[in-house]
């Protein structure tokens, strides 16, 4: 499963327009359609209901459930990326409240 497909799906559940989602990500509309098709195939259930006659889409109950999970997944991925970026920097950030930092740390540092 491609995490980008999940991002497209999350935007689609909010915007509810394939062309607008495609424009937001700078891709073509068929890219969004194929991403949705991959997700629906992977999970084996319809996530979006397309009403071609009224040019409207609605999110199915299964799609609503997945959308909730996608928010958690993307938040976790963002947190993991930030944590790994800090790990790559090789620096350790050490923080102390001002009273402790100003009073105790200078005495510890001299030893």
Question: Would you mind describing this structure in some detail?
Answer:
The chain has 111 residues and is mostly helical. The protein has a single domain (3-110), classed as Winged helix-like DNA-binding domain superfamily/Winged helix DNA-binding domain (Arc Repressor Mutant, subunit A). The chain contains six helices and two strands. It has helices at 3-15, 18-25, 29-43, 61-89, 98-103, 105-110; strands at 48-51, 56-59. Strands 1-2 form a two-stranded antiparallel sheet. α1 (3-15) packs across α2 (18-25), α1 (3-15) packs across α3 and α1 (3-15) packs across α4 (61-89). The longest helix is centred in the C-terminal third of the chain and has 29 residues, at 61-89. It is elongated. The mean pLDDT is 87.
CATH architectural arrangement? Orthogonal Bundle
How much is the average pLDDT? 87
Instruction: From the 3D structure, determine the CATH topology.
Output: Arc Repressor Mutant, subunit A
The whole-angstrom Rg is: 23 Å
Lateral arrangement of strands in the main beta sheet: 1-2
Fraction of residues in H or I helices: 55-70%
Percentage of residues in DSSP E strands: 5-15%
Regions with pLDDT < 50 over 5+ consecutive residues? none
